[in-house]
Input
Amino acid sequence: MLRVLVFLLAASCFTFATGKVLKVPLYVRQKLNRSELFFASNSTQGGETLKLPLQTRTNLEYYGTISMGTPRQNFSVIFDTGSSNTWLPSINCPKSNFACQNHRKYNSSRSRSYKPDGRNFTMRYGSGRVVGYLSKDTMHLAGADLTDLTFGESLFLQHFAFSSVRFDGLVGLGLGSLAWPNTTPFLELLCANRLIEKCIFSVYFGRKGGEILFGGFDRSKFEGKLHYVPISQWDSWNLEVTKTTVGTKQIGGISNAILDTGTSLVLMPQDTYNNLLKVLSAKVENGYSILSCERKSLPNINILIGGKVFPLTSSDYLMELTLDRKKLCVLAIAPINRGFWVLGDIFLGRYYTVYDATEKRIGLAKAVRRGG
Ligand SMILES: *[C@@H]1O[C@H](CO)[C@@H](O)[C@H](O)[C@H]1NC(C)=O
Ligand SMILES: *[C@@H]1O[C@H](CO)[C@@H](O)[C@H](O)[C@H]1NC(C)=O
Ligand SMILES: *[C@@H]1O[C@H](CO)[C@@H](O)[C@H](O)[C@H]1NC(C)=O
Ligand SMILES: *[C@@H]1O[C@H](CO)[C@@H](O)[C@H](O)[C@H]1NC(C)=O
Ligand SMILES: *[C@@H]1O[C@H](CO)[C@@H](O)[C@H](O)[C@H]1NC(C)=O
Output
């Protein structure tokens, strides 16, 4: 159920809140064009962990590079903790599908390690749909070769969600129960093939780029100790938020939260969101929740997880944008009409996260932030 609505708010981040979608892609494109790509660090490291540099465009899309097949065909992908399947655009997608044509496409005839599967698939994300058929091939990432990964070759990518994004495809980092039937998803295959020693991975989203580390975590990327909490539902990367406060006011109670690298913002249940607007004295105009641009006057949002408070500060949740040549500060948090949170890139920028598939737990610590 969860994977149905998580993911990729970069192109449609305000649709949950407003339906004023038209202005947002402009903002995203404008913003994205201003800053170009950065590499956080350079590729492979030997031993039992795999390190992958991630690139970002203004922290709205964090993506890395993988290749598929023999010889290799390169792709930019999102690593999505909110889903478990992997797909790439297919060379066989019709000319009429611009979102597919606009990206790099996998050609199975060019790969010696390709194996057909024969089944079709449909993936539904919060922002759009992807349809195609399944194939198997060797994925190469960070110096490792993952043989016989089942992935989707996409023939149809929904236009508004995928046409203007920088990444070509997606690698789902979720657990097995969310995967296509009778397939071993990426993380499980990586662990089963012993390409990493420990079945964990860690995510660092810095300001100018990030890093995903499979098989371990990087102490230089966070402060203090990792705070571990059990995953609250067996089948996905989620945890329990005990309560949420702003100042002395409680704005939300017990709720599940998915950690989702594929979502740009933070989404919270509607009633918690309404309380938040009240305590922040936000004005809702044209569907945007407008706040004061004086960051210092805005309080922290304190999220209690496993007995420890994880604050979001105004520099995390305030987003500047230009509308009709006027500078506006809006809340980078949107409501969701479900009873759980989605902790996306805004939260993951502040907190380093470790996903432990063996112990079924998630570790969190304050991320080190460098580079302004
Ligand atoms: C980014 O903006 C520059 C001008 O500022 C323009 O020449 C360029 O085509 C833009 N790039 C994209 C990808 O829109
Ligand atoms: C990658 O890092 C190694 C050592 O950490 C360095 O010697 C090498 O030049 C770097 N490569 C690139 C392309 O930056
Ligand atoms: C694919 O990526 C690898 C390493 O990331 C690079 O060496 C190679 O030149 C790329 N191939 C193409 C066709 O871009
Ligand atoms: C796919 O690869 C095959 C083998 O190299 C080639 O003949 C074919 O033209 C490619 N398809 C497209 C659409 O480029
Ligand atoms: C898969 O989808 C194609 C259309 O894209 C259709 O022609 C084919 O019959 C489908 N195959 C199965 C097994 O459903």
